[in-house]
Design goal:
With 259 residues, the chain is mainly alpha-helical. The protein has one domain (2-253). The protein has 10 helices and 6 strands, in the order αβαβββααββαααααα. The strands form 3 sheets. A two-stranded antiparallel sheet has the order 1-4. The protein starts with a helix and ends in a 6-residue tail after the last helix.
Length: 259
């Protein structure tokens, strides 16, 4: 029985880690695109007045799938505790660095002549090499800011999650899952912007952008609460209710301290 449980735990961590890593990497890659949330949903611009600036929800495309990272972080937190979250977060950061290193090398490869001048459906000539470099060649400060915010956000998330679990026990899942996400993403929203754009935008502009981004993340975090419960129900069904509670309790015992 114990071997079977160990196998299930191993499979569960592998699945959650795979989902976490895939979406974190994809979010970094597609993050260069900025889209209008209002236009995508067929709504009028928000025109929010924040610190004297008129702000709309113009967001990085990575924000679309980043909620999946929120969910998997909370599930790993619940069943594998701080060691599980730290392990997967550090490993993912290394993979992101590797991915950007590969992209950096790819950008510097000499393009084939026939590939550079490609025609679009209207017959217009496109410089594919310029487009490739523009899309994938993210600035160094943006990369550093994104990685720093990611790791700091993950550490804060696991700390807040486990502190809330210590206060509430196994009850009030919504509080530790949503609460930890709201706190960690508040920090994430401003850390990445200040590292990437300090000196490029004024501080009030950076804060206004951060507030706009956080409003989106706040709404998404609240909206995802039922999905968190669904994920727990699926895992409890897979492991067995009693075994799932045992694993969750063990994870909480291993999650003392911040680092």
């Amino acid at each position: 029985m114990e071997n079977t449980l160990d196998q299930k735990r191993s499979r569960l961590f592998t699945i959650l880690a795979g989902i976490f890593i895939t979406n974190a990497l994809l979010a970094e890659m597609i993050g260069v695109k900025i889209f209008s949330a209002e236009s995508t949903l067929g709504l009028s611009p928000a025109n929010l007045s924040i610190l004297g600036f008129t702000m709309d929800f113009n967001l990085t495309a990575g924000a679309v799938i980043w909620p999946v990272v929120f969910i998997t972080t909370d599930l790993i937190n619940e069943y594998f505790g701080k060691p599980g979250v730290k392990r997967i977060s550090y490993f993912t950061a290394l993979l992101i660095i590797y991915a950007f290193a590969v992209i950096f090398i790819s950008i510097r490869l000499s393009p084939a002549d026939f590939w550079i001048d490609t025609k679009d459906p209207d017959g217009n000539t496109l410089n594919m090499d310029f487009a490739f470099n523009k899309i994938f060649g993210q600035g160094q400060r943006i990369i550093i800011g994104s990685l720093t915010a990611f790791l700091l956000g993950q550490l804060v998330d696991v700390f807040v999650f486990q502190r809330l679990r210590k206060l509430t026990g196994s009850k009030m899942l919504w509080l530790r899952a949503t609460g930890s996400t709201l706190v960690s993403q508040f920090i994430d929203s401003f850390v990445v912007l200040f590292i990437a754009f300090y000196g490029v935008f004024t501080n009030p502009q950076i804060i206004a952008i951060g507030i706009t981004n956080y409003i989106y993340k706040f709404i998404i975090a609240i909206a995802l609460t039922p999905v968190i419960y669904m994920g727990h129900a699926l895992i409890d069904g897979y492991l067995g209710k009693a075994q799932a509670e045992k694993i969750s309790s063990e994870a909480a015992q291993k999650s003392k301290g911040f680092f």
